[in-house]
TrEMBL record:
Pfam families named among the record's database cross-references: Glyco_trans_1_4, Glyco_transf_4
Protein name: Glycosyltransferase
Entry superkingdom: Bacteria
GO molecular function: glycosyltransferase activity
Keywords: Transferase
Stretches assigned to the Glycosyltransferase subfamily 4-like N-terminal domain: 18-209
Length: 394
């Protein structure tokens, strides 16, 4: 097949799962075109992200005149299609926080994308996230572009399902993807029951070949690593407070960056944790793997999630995981077998789990890590999941 991926901002450091999915589809013989609305606003540290940027066509970079011209050609091509797409755009704009004017811009973007897809003989379009990328994919379809699907990750989509018109998008889609059974259950809440059958589960995947020979757990003082954007939903402030409550001298490495970095740095200083917490900012995949190898466990203290890729990668690297009972995470992490599960926002429980990492014998930690590895490899192989996605596209 020739597939178009329709994305908002791509590539981004926190969305390597999209890159992996595209590569897996290409490895299976499909041709994938990348259409993003805009470039990332943060520096791309990873060479793989920079390579993806070179392969991506940026819609808004074409300029207002080009998008308006594409919409004008759509009117001349089939006014009935344009009326239907305009009707849907205005209906979505009426309930959206971004308003009707923004949805007219999405309509123009969709006209350009639909035109490019026809020119390239694209057979299917796929968007990631149920936000504006899915809106453009849907409107492109209504303007004579290819049939489309989109993947919903959460938690952002579940925070505003009506404003994002998820039910309308599901109805118009060829199929809709959730990344966990929990995610599917939430989409069923906002879809017409007649559309439930088109909601499928396709997991985000890891590349097993990158984790063929996981490093043994290191000897010495216990270390945990947390990876993710420094934003409120990731719960890092609770994690720093938990570090102050541990009774064991656990060291935390915090990988990532974001709007809450200043708050986190101030709290680290206030609690006197500068020697026990290391902030790295964004790093490439090689550095992430190195930090996982140096750690005894991953900690994911999130308040809201979809199903975190970093949890999968840590498990593939044979590291136990401390995570919170939210969204799709309990479908993967098994309390007492592959790690520790705690209630979101429970600082004392988070501290106790990190103390458990320090107090558990290395042999038992290693056994938990290998159980985690076996579980994630059985459930999240990117080749298997990409073939599921391709089968639904076919």
């Amino acid at each position: 097949m020739k597939i178009a991926y329709i994305l908002n901002t791509y590539p981004q450091p926190s969305q390597s799962f999209i890159r992996r999915e595209i590569r897996a589809l290409e490895a299976q013989g499909h041709e994938v075109l990348r259409f993003a609305m805009r470039r990332a606003e943060v520096p791309l540290v990873d060479a793989q992200d920079r390579a993806e940027e070179e392969k991506t066509e940026y819609v808004l970079a074409e300029g207002k005149a080009a998008l308006a011209a594409a919409l004008g050609r759509a009117v001349r091509r089939d006014m009935t299609e344009v009326r239907e797409a305009l009707k849907e755009a205005m209906a979505m704009g009426a309930v959206s926080e971004t308003g009707r004017l923004r949805h007219l811009i999405y309509l123009a973007e969709a006209a350009y994308v639909a035109e490019r897809c026809r020119a390239e003989s694209v057979s299917h379009a796929h968007a990631h996230f149920g936000t504006n990328a899915a809106t453009v994919a849907m409107l492109s379809h209504l303007l004579g572009g290819p049939k489309f699907s989109f993947t919903v990750h959460g938690p952002e989509e579940f925070d505003a399902p009506r404003a994002l018109a998820l039910g309308r998008k599901i109805h118009h889609s060829d199929f809709t993807v959730a990344i966990s059974q929990f995610g599917r259950s939430q989409l069923c809440r906002w879809a017409d029951p007649a559309d439930w059958e088109r909601i499928k589960v396709v997991h985000c995947g890891i590349e097993p070949e990158k984790f063929i020979d996981p490093a043994p757990l290191p000897k010495g003082p216990r270390r945990v690593v947390a990876i993710g954007r420094l934003v409120e939903q990731k719960g890092q402030l609770a994690l720093i407070r938990a570090m102050a409550e541990t009774t064991e001298p656990v060291h935390l490495t915090l990988i990532g960056d974001g709007e809450m970095r200043g708050d986190i740095e101030r709290l680290i200083a206030e609690l006197g944790l500068a020697k026990r917490v290391t902030l790295t900012g964004w790093v490439d995949e090689a550095r992430i793997r190195a930090e996982l190898e140096a750690a005894h466990a991953l900690v994911m203290p999130s308040f809201a999630e979809g199903l975190p890729m970093v949890v999968m990668e840590a498990m593939a690297a044979a590291r136990p995981v401390i995570a919170t009972y939210i969204a799709g995470t309990p479908e993967l992490v098994q309390n007492g077998q592959t790690g520790w599960m705690v209630s979101a926002g429970d600082v004392a429980a988070l501290a106790a789990a990190m103390d458990s990492v320090a107090q558990t014998p290395l042999t038992k930690l290693s056994k938990m890590g290998m159980a985690a590895r076996a579980r994630v490899l059985a459930r999240h192989d990117v080749e298997v999941e990409a073939e599921k996605l391709a089968s639904w596209m076919r």
